[in-house]
């Protein structure tokens, strides 16, 4: 039990660390929030600075988010977005108090469910355990964002030559970990549904004439 929980903790916190580090880099490189700050002040700014994606505009019309960084032109950009809702902005229009309580409850219920599923899984179900650990890490990353800021930092922008309807919702490392984890669980469930090959019958010797 201890070894299995150690694996869950290590993978989940590795995802959490990668998620928060990349979000820090997004704030540092894609906004002006940390300009002129050094040391601990940069970490404080990472947590405290808000309204960096210019929605709504700041006083005086000053833009705090920089232009997107074009990693692969026409396909993959990095741009800073503050998402108060879920994917595609779902539930983002709820009143702030209601929205915060809703997402906090959903996150805690999801994390509890993941932990119970992990504990009940068999040691041989390595793929399932990896998947659950990835989902747990992603859920923790976005939960921490909502707990500290009331929104999730997104920055990975995939699209197809800016064509209408060909843009994936901007996401982050936590979202990616959750998607990979869900895909692994689906893969595992499909492998379990494959019919087992019927055992070959032993050849019987024909009776002597």
TrEMBL record:
Pathway: Protein modification; lipoprotein biosynthesis (signal peptide cleavage)
GO cellular component: plasma membrane
Compartment(s) where it occurs, according to its Swiss-Prot or TrEMBL record: Cell membrane
Keyword Endoplasmic reticulum among UniProt keywords: no
Keyword Zinc included in the entry's annotation: no
UniProt signal peptide: 1-17
UniProt family annotation: Belongs to the peptidase A8 family.
An MF annotation (GO) of this entry: aspartic-type endopeptidase activity
Catalytic activity: Release of signal peptides from bacterial membrane prolipoproteins. Hydrolyzes -Xaa-Yaa-Zaa-|-(S,diacylglyceryl)Cys-, in which Xaa is hydrophobic (preferably Leu), and Yaa (Ala or Ser) and Zaa (Gly or Ala) have small, neutral side chains
GO biological processes: proteolysis
Residue positions of the active site: 154, 175
NCBIfam families: lspA (TIGR00077), PRK14773.1 (NF011355)
Domain of life: Bacteria
Enzyme Commission designation: 3.4.23.36
InterPro entries with a match to the protein in the record: Peptidase_A8 (IPR001872)
Topology class, membrane: Multi-pass membrane protein
Organism encoding this protein: Stigmatella aurantiaca
Protein's recorded name: Lipoprotein signal peptidase
Keyword annotations of the record: Aspartyl protease, Cell membrane, Hydrolase, Membrane, Protease, Signal, Transmembrane, Transmembrane helix
Annotated transmembrane regions: 101-120, 127-148, 168-187
Role noted for this protein: This protein specifically catalyzes the removal of signal peptides from prolipoproteins.
